[in-house]
Amino acid sequence: MDTRKIDLHVHSTASDGTMSPAELAVAVKEAGLCAFALTDHDTVDGIAEARTAAKAASVELIPGVELSCDYKGKEVHMVGLYLDETNPRLLTHLARFRDNRDNRNQKMYQKLNEEGFAISEEGLREMFPDAVLTRAHVARFLLEHGYIKSISEAFEKYIGDGCRCHVPREKITPQEGIELIHHANCAGASGALPYERRQAAGTDYQLPGLRTGRNRSALFHLPAGRRTLYPKAGG
Fold it and tell me: Kind and range of the H or E element at 179?
């Protein structure tokens, strides 16, 4: 029986993770894993660094990405695996996503300023110089500066969906996400997996209605913050 362990949903400092892509490769090796997928939010910028470090650490890197989609009014995060990170269509879409996120962030900072929080793009860049800034970074900034007592407080009171400082941003449909991921897959691989983000509960749930015949997996959000993909029983 094959007992090797892998992690197919990992973020780096290229988005909202706390380790650089190179540090992740070392951590994966030290944890006894044989492979990991780098699936940063709306960016593949960390993959080249991760690939070099993974080769040096003798672990396999699976290039991936996490896309933000909208499904019946709910935010759905979609993980794509085995991607060609140089795919022009993928890069064009990711650049558009980041531009839209940046515009949304500026409006969110203004609303937070009106609540009395001294937060700005410059301050966030100082804390997270290489990251694609997300609401998770905003929450960590507020926590580090003593404005809130926990990350969950930021989402539940200020920047979570429907809260007074929340600003929605452009999202693609799950079908568009699947098409984009399949278009960017390398070596004929398939890896689109949708799941709903439950911020308050800190859990992720697969959305069965979005599964296709090629997406036979289930994703669980582990309490420690590492997300691991397990084959669904019965295939």
Answer: helix 174-184
Cβ(185)–Cβ(84) below 8 Å: yes
DSSP state of 209: G
CA dist 97 and 102 (Å) reads 9
Q: Which residue has the tokens 């699976």?
A: 62
Q: How far apart are CA 29 and CA 18, in angstroms?
A: 17
User: Residue 93, exposed/middle/buried by CB under 10 A (0-12, 13-18, 19+)?
Assistant: buried
**Per-residue pLDDT reduced to its tens digit, 148-180:** 999 999 999 999 988 999 998 878 888 888 888
* HSE (side-chain half, CA atoms, 13 Å) at 194: 23
Report all structural domains of the chain as residue ranges with CATH numbers, in order of start: 6-86+171-231 (3.20.20.140), 93-159 (1.10.150)
DSSP track, 21-69: HHHHHHHHHHTT-SEEEE--BT--TTHHHHHHHHHHHT-EEEEEEEEEE
CA angle 150–156–159, rounded 5-degree value: 95
Q: What is the pTM of this model?
A: 0.71
Residues 173, 155 contacting (CB under 8 angstroms): no
Q: Which residues of the chain have pLDDT under 70?
A: 186-235
End-to-end CA separation in angstroms for the chain: 17
Which residue type does 170 have? E
